[in-house]
Amino acid sequence: MTGSIALILAVLLPLVSGQVPHWGPCPEPTTQPAFNLKQFVGRWFEIAKLPAQFEKGRCIETNFTLKLDNSLRIISSEILRGELRRIEGVGVTEDLKNPAKLGITFSYVLPYTPYWILSTDYVNTAVVYSCTDILRLFHVEFAWVLSRSRSLPAAALEKAADIFAKNSIDVSRMTNTRQQGCEKA
Ligand SMILES: *[C@@H]1O[C@H](CO)[C@@H](O)[C@H](O)[C@H]1NC(C)=O
């Protein structure tokens, strides 16, 4: 048993290196009640996140637009080593009973990754969480604090930290995303 777990880890670790693996299945956090996708669309700046391999730059922002079929067009951009990089993705409401549970993907060949809106007031802050079970042995998670502007008051960051804590999501490794010097790049 121990041997097979070690083997599984050896195979999967390259996938999750740089992320935050935790033993056991995903937690089941509470999400934004009566989530309203139309109010959520628009431009969000990343203020803080759990380290993610695919986001290493600064000035990270995402623009969500509602398409006619109620899916989302997602354009994310960042500045990495002085260059502006953009990726385009798609978002969908994955759970019609809980519209705060979105799924997003940035590639046609990849499945949707959970993108759960734990809390948002739509006009200032959004607290977002993503968790994927791997064989129910462990899970890989991401978390973001988003803001409608490039900075957030400390009180809003503390409130976001409280929301993660209440849901037993460990964000002690969360890092701030640099949002300075973004205009002149
Ligand atoms: C967001 O995307 C929409 C549709 O592509 C575009 O019209 C709008 O200008 C974009 N907003 C920002 C801030 O990039």
Class based on secondary structure composition and strand pairing: alpha+beta
Task: List cofactors, ions and other ligands.
Answer: 2-acetamido-2-deoxy-beta-D-glucopyranose
* CATH-defined fold name: Lipocalin
For the largest beta-sheet, the strand count, sense and barrel status come to:
8 strands, antiparallel, barrel
Quantity of strands, as a count: 10
Which percent range fits the helix content? 10-25%
At CATH's second level, what is the architecture? Beta Barrel
Describe the model.
- By secondary structure, the chain is of the alpha+beta class.
- The chain has a single domain (about 20-180), classed as Calycin beta-barrel core domain (Lipocalin), CATH 2.40.128.20.
- It is about 15% helix and about 40% strand.
- The chain contains three helices and ten strands, in the order αβαββββββββαβ.
- The chain has helices at about 1-15, 35-40, 155-165, and strands spanning about 20-25, 40-50, 60-65, 70-80, 85-95, 100-105, 115-120, 125-135, 140-145, 175.
- It has an eight-stranded antiparallel beta barrel.
- The chain starts with a helix and ends in a 9-residue tail after the last strand.
- The mean pLDDT is about 90.
- 2-acetamido-2-deoxy-beta-D-glucopyranose binds next to β3.
How is this structure best summarized?
This protein is α+β, with helices and mostly antiparallel strands and 185 residues long. Helices cover 17% and strands 41% of the residues.
